[in-house]
């Protein structure tokens, strides 16, 4: 696929998702005339309840497939960061659809059998496997997703609760098996849903259950750890065996067994395809706060690279790079790659930090600015100059056709994107590195 | 997405509360015999086969299942396979059609459907009942127990 044709590529993802999620509706529609499905109040709500269950279940299955981190998804979604963002959104939609599945079914029964409507929500009936599994699964999803959407637990605790959703999925499958509805009487529908379930469970087992043993990771050793400030450090990794092949702007998942079993994503700051690579990290959370000089010589396991945040797709165009704080990381790899690139370039880098003491790699970037005609760097101190905005940027870079790359705090990225669009910049020209899902 | 999910939760809670209120406040299962009340008419009715056979249309459908009589007129409205498959059994014994899904998969109806049927129970064949009085058995029909193995 042509990586430069970004707008078209974005649609591939939507088409694939729509086909997978909406496919079950086709055999369902074919089973009865549409008029019969929506003949009156009761049949209409029954049908809506069934549609919610088919779509909700398909989305749930797709979401488990999305967490596998397979390279195909990284390409289809134009970056693994986008995969996780979509996983979050699709999870919310699946939950709401599944909430309304029993609501619509119960509503449909209200005019003719109001007492029976209650059975969808009243406490568990142990002898009714269909209702027992449905209620258990729904209740579990509500609790586990409420934790995701409304709490800020420490990452490792949150991740454990989130993984439990993978164990809720088989309960939903048992519910479908016992509920004795359209699914069990339509061979194509039954086959499709169970095939999707197989992929979902396989994906969950591969990544969440057996990930430690089966996911391929390359072994590196931590060569150096350098602190620029109390919180910002650079780590250099040297391969023990095979090395990773990466492009500028890509990121990897880092696991250091001596400090944690978790793996976390970080952008590579090296230019590309070297033996060693470096990461620029800010100590902000439970995991990064464990990083210290004592890590030198320790083994690291690297998964990846991932991501499609790459300036080289547009070297013939005017570019604006905007880095906020530690969001400088991918732009460093871009800048180091520029050193080896021949031909004309026209690139402005706006590097915003809160305080001057947080500026890192400025000397190296200034050297590239001297060597590379067409590359300019504009440091920006927000505590003195206010929040970085498009008006400031346009004083130096006033080209509506510029391709824009932004990486930094989520609020900064969404704010700047809105401002650019308001100024008439096409959204297709704006590339965000969703750093903050990491 | 958080706003969307929050709205979903709020609507879900409202809907569940509304359904519980309506469901619990309803007077009872719908076993009321339809039809106008004629002044001076007798208030008792004998559920013999002759009487049951009179209720054999789409607007007034009774069915016998294992000696139990059900007024399933309203069920015709929501029957997934349509009313036509049930009509031949209105006013008669519907065991064959009900336990085999007559023109469908050949399998029995689900536990859910049997539970739903309780709402439409009128009485036993041969029983004399008072019109307007409802009576819901707490034990499911024997048909369900016989077919339990199919669901295990």
Shape by Cα distribution of chain B: elongated
Instruction: Write the H/E string of chain B, N to C.
Output: HEHEEEHEHHEEH
Q: Work out the radius of gyration of chain B.
A: 18 Å
Strands of chain A, count:
11
SS-derived structural category of chain A: alpha/beta
Radius of gyration of chain A: 25 Å
The chain-level structural class of chain B is alpha+beta
Largest sheet of chain B: 5 strands, mixed
State the end-to-end CA separation of chain A.
27 Å
Task: List the topology elements.
The complex is a heterodimer of chains A (438) and B (152).
Chain A: H1 6-22, H2 25-31, H3 34-37, H4 41-66, H5 71-76, H6 80-109, H7 114-118, H8 129-150, H9 155-163, H10 165-178, H11 182-185, H12 187-209, H13 211-214, E1 218-227, E2 232-239, E3 251-255, E4 264-267, E5 277-282, E6 299-306, E7 319-324, H14 328-339, E8 347-353, H15 362-371, E9 375-381, H16 382-385, H17 390-396, E10 403-407, H18 410-422, E11 430-432
Parallel strand pairs in A: 7-8, 7-10, 8-9, 10-11
Antiparallel strand pairs in A: 1-2, 1-6, 2-5, 3-4, 3-6
Helix pairs in contact in A: 1-4, 4-6, 4-12, 6-8, 8-10, 10-12
Chain B: H1 2-25, E1 44-46, H2 49-53, E2 56-57, E3 60-65, E4 68-71, H3 75-78, E5 92-93, H4 95-100, H5 111-117, E6 121-124, E7 128-130, H6 142-147
Parallel strand pairs in B: 3-5
Antiparallel strand pairs in B: 1-7, 2-3, 3-4, 4-6
């Amino acid at each position: 696929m042509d990586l430069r044709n970004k707008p078209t590529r974005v649609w591939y993802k939507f088409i694939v998702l729509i086909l997978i999620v909406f496919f079950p509706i086709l055999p369902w529609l074919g089973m009865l005339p549409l008029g019969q499905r929506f003949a009156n109040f009761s049949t209409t709500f029954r049908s809506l309840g069934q549609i919610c269950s088919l779509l909700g279940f398909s989305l749930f299955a797709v979401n488990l497939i999305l967490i596998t981190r397979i390279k195909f998804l990284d390409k289809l979604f134009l970056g693994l960061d986008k995969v996780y963002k979509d996983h979050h959104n699709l999870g919310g939609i699946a939950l709401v659809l599944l909430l309304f599945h029993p609501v619509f079914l119960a509503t449909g029964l209200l005019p003719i059998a109001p007492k029976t409507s209650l059975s969808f929500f009243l406490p568990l009936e142990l002898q009714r496997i269909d209702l027992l599994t449905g209620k258990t699964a729904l209740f579990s999803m509500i609790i586990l997703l409420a934790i995701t959407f409304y709490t800020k637990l420490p990452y490792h605790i949150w991740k454990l609760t989130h993984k439990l959703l993978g164990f809720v999925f088989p309960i939903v499958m048992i519910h479908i098996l016992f509920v004795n509805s359209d699914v069990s009487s339509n061979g194509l529908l039954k086959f499709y849903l169970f095939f999707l379930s197989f992929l979902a469970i396989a994906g969950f087992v591969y990544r969440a259950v057996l990930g430690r043993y089966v996911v391929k990771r390359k072994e590196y050793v931590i060569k150096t750890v350098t602190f620029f400030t109390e919180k910002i450090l650079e780590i250099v990794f040297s391969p023990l065996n095979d090395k990773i092949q990466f492009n500028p702007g890509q990121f990897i998942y880092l696991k250091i067994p001596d400090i944690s079993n978790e793996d976390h994503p970080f952008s590579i700051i090296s230019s590309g395809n070297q033996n060693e690579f470096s990461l620029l990290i800010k100590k902000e959370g439970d995991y990064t706060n464990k990083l210290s000089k004592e890590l030198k010589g320790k083994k690291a396991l690297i998964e990846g690279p991932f991501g499609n945040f790459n300036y080289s797709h547009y070297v013939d165009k005017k570019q604006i790079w905007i880095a906020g704080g530690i969001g400088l990381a991918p732009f460093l790899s871009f800048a180091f790659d520029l050193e080896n690139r021949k031909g004309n370039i026209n690139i402005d880098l706006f590097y915003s930090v809160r305080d001057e003491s947080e500026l890192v790699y400025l000397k190296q970037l200034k050297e590239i600015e001297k060597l590379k005609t067409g590359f300019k760097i504009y440091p920006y101190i927000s505590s003195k100059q206010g929040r970085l905005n498009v008006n400031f940027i346009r004083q130096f870079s006033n080209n509506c056709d510029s391709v824009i790359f932004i990486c930094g705090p989520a609020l900064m990225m969404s704010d700047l994107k809105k401002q650019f669009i308001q100024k008439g910049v096409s959204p297709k020209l704006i590339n965000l590195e969703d750093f903050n899902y990491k | 997405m958080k706003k969307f999910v929050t709205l979903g939760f709020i609507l879900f809670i409202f809907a569940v509360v509304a359904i519980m209120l309506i469901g619990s406040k309803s007077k009872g299962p719908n076993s009321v015999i339809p039809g106008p009340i004629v002044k001076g008419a007798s208030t008792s009715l004998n559920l013999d086969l002759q009487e049951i056979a009179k209720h054999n249309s789409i607007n007034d459908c009774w069915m016998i299942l294992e000696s139990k009589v059900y007024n399933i007129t309203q069920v015709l409205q929501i029957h997934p396979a349509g009313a036509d498959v049930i009509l031949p059994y209105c006013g008669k014994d519907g065991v064959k059609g009900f336990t085999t899904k007559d023109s469908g998969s050949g399998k029995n109806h689900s536990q859910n459907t049997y539970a739903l049927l309780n709402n439409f129970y009128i009485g036993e064949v041969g029983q004399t009942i008072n019109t307007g009085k409802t009576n819901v058995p707490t034990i499911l029909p024997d048909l369900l127990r016989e077919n339990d193995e199919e669901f295990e």
